[in-house]
Amino acid sequence: MLHRLAIQTSGREHARLRRRLRTIEHAEGPWLESGGRRLLGFCSNDYLGLAQHPQLIAALKRTADDEGVGSGSAHLICGHRREHAQLEEALAEWTGRERALLFSTGYMANLGTMQALLAREDVCVQDKLNHACLLDGSRLAGAELKRYSHADVEAAARQLRSRPQAAALLATDGVFSMDGDVAPLAALAALCAREHATLMVDDAHGLGVLGADGAGSVRAAGLGQHDVPVLMATLGKALGGSGAFVAGSATLIDGLVQFARPYVYTTAMPPALAAAAGTAVAIARNENWRREKLQALIARFRTGAAQLGLPLMDSPSAIQPLQLGDAQAALEAAQWLEQRGLLVTAIRPPTVSQGQARLRITLSAAHEDEHVDQLLDALATLPKPAATGGPV
Ligand SMILES: Cc1ncc(COP(=O)(O)O)c(C=O)c1O
């Protein structure tokens, strides 16, 4: 098996698709030190600039001083601390739902929720561009997975109607992690209501960023718990921490506590992290200026990129990908930027489909106008890819 794995890894090497780890020696706002160099990062998901906020750090330190580091056990044994309970209440209130339940990661939240909700005879209908953990969740549950072309509500309807007798879960990212666009949530909610399907939204990249008080893409679409009974979001992106939650009715949460194995059989997140996340929720809700600043930076970037004729994708979110097509072109573009002091990730297959490689540029309220200008100046000098002679 190890031999086979080694062959598969070298296959990636030959296809020039091998993934490599990079160690960040120090992070300070959007600045990252790696290999002894200071780079301006446009690749983190810290959209509101909260990861290094002094109040989050103070909450983490205070709780660690009082409660220690680890929670000591799973939630159902003795790991469910006051900090977890308080955070769950704050998240339920923010997202306008009866209850919320913490998970250690977003990956586990999606696996656990789908495994608890779906039976083998059910159907799970998903957008083609959904995050890997939603796809894995329905596979783990053993339900039939039917995918529809990206953001195509008619195609989703056809998939639902192909199994009219089956109980159906329709799952979608709220904001798509590699494209940055927002799912057609109102139309999907109307479809689910018509077809008696349950709608689940993964708002990992929408929470904190979209909606009046940052309550996310579901709120921004004017939808509530009735329309989207299953809402999942993470604490590791705009909230600057780590972990995730599912929010919904008391029935949903009670059921997850009983049946979501990635909830039941794992150590609860450290209480200090929950305390820091609670502080992050308060800041994210109250400090609207962070969202306004982020939106202004997004607008500045999009205007500048359009002036340069760069292949922008249609995204209103903090994720602003530049589609380059060829994996090698994306890699070379990332290297070009890095030589100019900028860290931007090249996203290549299998994370995106063949021919869809891109630079995944992300913006944050931690950036300033001059950072965006620096990025645009560097992008303006990108050489055209030799193979395609494309627009960049
Ligand atoms: C849409 C989406 N859902 C879920 C996850 C997983 O969340 P976590 O990093 O907390 O495991 C991610 C990325 O990390 C994501 O982009």
Automatic annotation (TrEMBL):
Sites where N6-(pyridoxal phosphate)lysine occurs are at K237
Q: Which residues bind substrate?
A: R19, H131, T351
Q: Name one GO molecular function term.
A: 8-amino-7-oxononanoate synthase activity
Q: Which cofactor does it need?
A: pyridoxal 5'-phosphate
PROSITE patterns named in the record: AA_TRANSFER_CLASS_2 (PS00599)
Q: Which residues form the Aminotransferase class I/classII large domain?
A: 39-379
The catalysed reaction is: 6-carboxyhexanoyl-[ACP] + L-alanine + H(+) = (8S)-8-amino-7-oxononanoate + holo-[ACP] + CO2
Function summary: Catalyzes the decarboxylative condensation of pimeloyl-[acyl-carrier protein] and L-alanine to produce 8-amino-7-oxononanoate (AON), [acyl-carrier protein], and carbon dioxide.
Protein name, as recorded:
8-amino-7-oxononanoate synthase
Gene from which the chain derives: bioF
